[in-house]
User: Fold this.
Amino acid sequence: MMSNSRTLYQYVPFTAQTSIRLLKLSPGSSESAPLEISFAEVDLDDRPQYEALSYVWGDKTEKAAILCHGKTIEVTPNCEIALRRLRLVTKPRSLWIDVLCINQRSLNERNHQVSMMGNIYSAATRVIVWLGNCTDLSRVAINLLKLCGGELQKGDEATRVRRFDQLYMRLPGRPSVVKNTLSWAIHR
Assistant:
């Protein structure tokens, strides 16, 4: 739970239309060590090196606290878990995560950054998809991804969605939550 004794982090507005905010995830020697991040504004046209995280936000009513420039940022528990899993032991990691790298309280910034998301994900050195901690459905989701392979990179969106549906129908025990989550990922 979030402690009320800390000051909330205040986002600094961007200085250029092609700017994005990158998150530097500080290293941690144990999974339970406090999460610490910092932000740096970079110009997407300068081709910065970073990984993008696409993840399921999860329950937005529960909050966890992480440190950013000595202040607090509230995140969903699923975001906190993803950051803990992605944190390296000995060196920082440069990431772009929409919920953190976009000031969610600024409608103008949010709208502008959302319009750039295709370019942001395309420019990343790698896109990491985090669906949450492993569950019984994880095996089904991984099997579907293996079936899909490069098939979902071909054609327009309608073709990719049709192909996804065809592959999904080949899976035994087709839970709709897996289909809905992975279908969402196809549209990104």
User: Anything to note?
Assistant: Strands lie at 19-25, 36-43, 51-55, 64-68, 71-75, 93-97, 126-130. The mean pLDDT is 84.
